[in-house]
Amino acid sequence: MAETRPPDVAQVLKDALYVGVGLGVIGLQKVQVRRRELTRSVKQQVGEGRNPLDRLDADLARDARAQVEKLADGFEDRVKVIEERVEAVESQVDQVLDQLQDKLPEPARELVKQARETARQARESAKEARAQVRTLVRSAA
Question: Between the CA of residue 113 and those of 35, 90, 134, what are the distances in Å?
Fold first, then answer.
């Protein structure tokens, strides 16, 4: 009969320890894989939750821009109407001043002519300033 030897206790304990460590490593890897899957899932859900908000923000910004452009267009239209009316009044005033200037003596006529030229230059400067304001309003829209 064959001789049976008792198992080497130290070797059995060593093998059991290796199996335990191996199982622990496998368990740890499974936990890490599950953690990565959960992280990916949460990021995806958060990202999906963010997308509708991003679209809402973009829609609100587009609507706000459209409203500002509409207001700017209305502002420009009103300014044009006012400018046309002011120019009509200026033309009438110039006609009256021409008649008055013709009736003045020469020294006074020259002073009125200079004053009117200065006023004309001021009106031109104001017109240029209004154009710049319109440009700024349009670019802000």
Answer: 89, 15, 32
**8 Å CB contact between 112 and 97:** yes
**Ranges of H-type helices in 8-105:** 9-103
Q: What is the pTM of this model?
A: 0.47
The H or E element containing residue 129 is helix 106-140
Q: Rounded to whole angstroms, how far apart are CA atoms 64 and 99?
A: 53
The Cβ of residue 25 has, within 10 Å, a number of other Cβ atoms equal to: 10
Report the phi/psi class of residue 6: left, alpha or beta, with left for phi > 0 and alpha for psi in -120 to 50. beta
Are residues 109 and 101 in contact, defined by beta-carbon separation less than 8 angstroms?
yes
Contacts of 101 (CB under 8 A, 6+ apart): 109, 112, 113, 116
What pLDDT, in 10s, does the model give residues 72-115? 778 778 878 888 888 888 889 888 888 888 888 988 888 888 88
Q: Based on the number of CB atoms within 10 Å of its own CB, is 31 exposed (0-12), middle (13-18) or buried (19 or more)?
A: exposed
Task: Tokens for 134, please give them.
Answer: 């319109």
